[in-house]
Amino acid sequence: AYDNSPALADALTLANLMGEREVALPVAGVFALSLTTDNTRFQDAAFTSLQSLLYATALTNILKRPVGRSRPSVGNGPYNTEAFSGHTSFPSGHTTTAFAVLTPWVLYYPNGATYGLFAVGSGTATARVALDRHWPTDVVAGAAIGILTARYLTNRHRPSPTAAPNAPRLRITPLVGTDALGVGLRVHIP
């Protein structure tokens, strides 16, 4: 257990920070900074990272309530789910956040250094399980949501060179209000 290893406990605490809500501030800051440059690739990557964070977080939060999975620390076991019970283990929001923020940088700047960003996201996932906050399947689902959201948005911002210029496009947008939650669909058909 990590209780006997202060170095491991510190590493888990640090990795866990990548999934905290406060990560939105530096992500927004990087996007704002990108606007002061003429580097459109950097601007696109920063915008996609911020947008991915917002979309993936909304999707994860939409899923948590109806699934109603208990956290490991509750002691009900991994198969205990009760819709709208207030239990919010599945999927892992911290893991979603880490992968949603980091994946666009890997996709816009694919190289050995950026591939290492996946180790940071994996560290966050590992921390959530080790800290008894999530089941392994919670973090796998969170990683999938973060990665797939980032990939979808990156592809949307950088269309494939083989795509027809006027191909139908589907746009999915989370709708969040003070008394409403939903998903908006917009289809563009030329």
SSE order and pairing:
Elements: H1 6-17, H2 24-34, H3 40-67, H4 93-108, H5 112-115, H6 117-130, H7 136-157, E1 169-176, E2 181-188
Antiparallel strand pairs: 1-2
Mean pLDDT, to the nearest integer, reads 83
Oligomeric state of the chains present here: single chain
Major sheet characteristics: 2 strands, antiparallel
Beta content comes to 5-15%
Q: Point out poorly predicted stretches.
A: none
- Shape summary: globular
Read across the widest sheet, the strand sequence of neighbours is 1-2
**Nearest-angstrom radius of gyration?**
18 Å
Number of helices: 7
* Class from helix and strand fractions: mainly alpha
* Helix-strand string: HHHHHHHEE
Q: What helical percentage do the residues reach?
A: 55-70%
What does this structure look like?
- This protein is mainly alpha-helical and 190 residues long.
- It has 7 helices and 2 strands.
- It has a two-stranded antiparallel ribbon.
- Strand 1 and strand 2 form a beta hairpin.
- Helix 1 crosses helix 6 and helix 2 packs antiparallel against helix 3.
- The longest helix is centred in the N-terminal third of the chain and has 28 residues.
- The protein is globular and about 55 Å long.
Question: Can you give me a brief rundown of this structure?
Answer:
The chain is mainly alpha-helical. The protein contains seven helices and two strands; from the N terminus they run αααααααββ. It has a two-stranded antiparallel sheet with strand order 1-2.
